[in-house]
TrEMBL record:
Name recorded for this polypeptide: SH3b domain-containing protein
Signal peptide (from-to): 1-25
UniProt feature coiled coil, ranges: none
SH3b domain location: 63-101
Originating organism: Candidatus Falkowbacteria bacterium CG1_02_41_21
InterPro entries reported for this sequence: SH3-like_bac-type
Record keywords, A-Z: Signal
């Protein structure tokens, strides 16, 4: 497959981005994984919400319900983790799940909900993509972004231009023609969005959220007028139930990370110094192809980090050859012409140093107990050794479990010394081992826990 490097340029052509309407759109996180499929790990720290985030009743997108919205900068208690989600508890004792990328650790105390405005997520969902006009004030216009359900104030044509520049979705000429022809599946997916004709001069169109009709947005002021003409009147009391955000605060990556409709699920394995990647699309297409981004830090981005570009919208695999020893992070994204749209989950692959691939001479001491909640807590210490590639914690219904072969948890953090196991019953046996890449080196003692 031909790999092409393209440096942006289409953004400058998007001068006509200006809003006009309403609609639906979708959100994203890797929803390929079933709810509660992975074990939950106990956590105990305070976390601060980095951008207004939905609190869900389960750690996944497609099957979960939104409990409420946590305001930006709110501090909550993080009590568990599962597959990229944090289980959290607020000051009132309410628990739920939030995407881990939207929470950062803090020393600040848990904050009260006092004074926070309630948010009607149902109303926001119904008005996704609409232009709302404050009929009880002076006709101020607001756009409800279909991607994240926040409302954005449309002060004037310049503001409308900024909204379109930041929130416009690139579309190929072929798909634009399908929209004009009212192809139902595409219209339903893009209602309320602003689309940019990236294969031409970045012409902007608004997809009416009700009829699916396209409105051409020639420039910022014309788009502003189109938006007002297509607007829906709303009372102040209803508008206050839709959370607002400043246009400049909008982060397309964070917004798509909480997108319940569209997602990309990425997996990867190592074959020697070669990384083999594969992905699936959920409720979406990517007509302009994909960027596969790689870096030595988490959550690589385009533009910014090293990448492979594939123009084939049907491609679902990639390979990175001859990687040196080290830790690599990968993501794949929907390419929108000069920028990425929906990102996949972040995966981490470690290419071992062959010098580190021999068994150590030291030992590992493992201890464990079962707490009142029935969770097995394990702790270990290293004696005269290190384990640079991390640890495998193996469990079985027989003594001396091994890897590969028995159930395990893998930790790439060489400094980690604790693990937890839940949803077990009866007698279980545990060992932790030095991970050497595909096999174990030094094993700890065998311990027995009764659940």
């Amino acid at each position: 497959m031909k790999k092409i490097k393209i440096w942006g340029g289409l953004f400058a052509l998007v001068l006509v981005l200006a809003l006009a309407g309403s609609a639906l759109a979708n959100e994203s996180t890797p929803s390929e994984y079933a709810c509660n499929q992975d074990p939950m790990y106990t956590r105990d720290f305070n976390g601060q919400v980095t951008i207004s985030a939905r609190l869900r009743d389960m750690p996944c997108m497609d099957e979960s319900a939104v409990i409420r919205v946590l305001a930006k900068d709110k501090v909550i208690k993080v009590i568990g983790e599962m597959d990229g989600w944090y289980k959290v508890k607020d000051s009132d004792g309410q628990t739920g799940w939030v995407g881990a990328t939207l929470i950062k650790s803090t020393e600040a105390a848990v904050t009260s909900d006092a004074g926070e405005a309630a948010t009607d997520t149902g109303l926001a969902a119904r008005l996704k993509g609409y232009i709302l006009l404050q009929v009880e004030q002076h006709g101020e216009a607001w756009y409800v972004n279909p991607v994240n359900s926040f409302r954005y104030f449309l002060k004037d044509g310049e503001t409308a231009f900024n909204v379109m520049r930041k929130m416009g979705l690139g579309i190929s000429t072929a798909n634009l023609e399908k929209l004009k022809a009212k192809e139902k599946s595409l219209v339903d997916r893009l209602k309320g969005r602003i689309v940019l004709q990236v294969e031409n001069h970045g012409e902007a169109y608004y997809v009416n959220p009700v009829t699916g009709t396209l409105s051409y947005l020639k420039n910022g002021w014309e788009a502003y007028n189109v938006m007002r003409n297509l607007s829906l009147g709303i009372k102040d009391s209803d508008l206050s139930q839709i959370e607002s955000q400043d246009v400049e605060e909008y982060d397309s990556e964070s917004a798509t990370a909480d997108n319940s409709g569209n997602s990309i699920a990425l997996t990867g394995v190592l074959s020697g110094p070669k990384a083999n990647l594969a992905w699936t699309l959920n409720n979406m297409t990517s007509s302009l192809g994909f960027k596969v981004v790689m870096a030595d830090h988490e959550n690589p981005v385009y533009p910014g980090d090293e990448y492979h570009y594939y123009t084939d919208a049907n491609l679902r695999t990639d390979a990175w050859d001859n990687l040196a020893a080290g830790t690599y992070y990968f993501r794949v994204c929907e390419y929108l012409g000069g920028k990425c749209g929906v990102y996949s989950n972040n995966i981490k692959l470690i290419v071992p140093d062959t010098a580190a691939n021999s068994e150590s001479d030291g030992s590992i001491t493992l201890t464990g107990s079962v707490n009142e909640e029935g969770i097995g807590i394990l702790n270990w210490t290293l004696n005269d050794m290190t384990s640079p590639l991390g640890f495998k914690v193996v469990a079985a219904g027989h003594e001396n479990p091994v890897y590969p072969g028995d159930t395990y948890h893998y930790y790439s953090d060489a400094d980690l010394r604790t693990d937890s196991w839940s949803d077990l019953s009866g007698t279980s046996y545990f060992r932790v081992c030095e991970y050497l890449g595909g096999k174990c080196g030094v094993y700890s003692n065998n311990i027995t826990l009764e659940f």
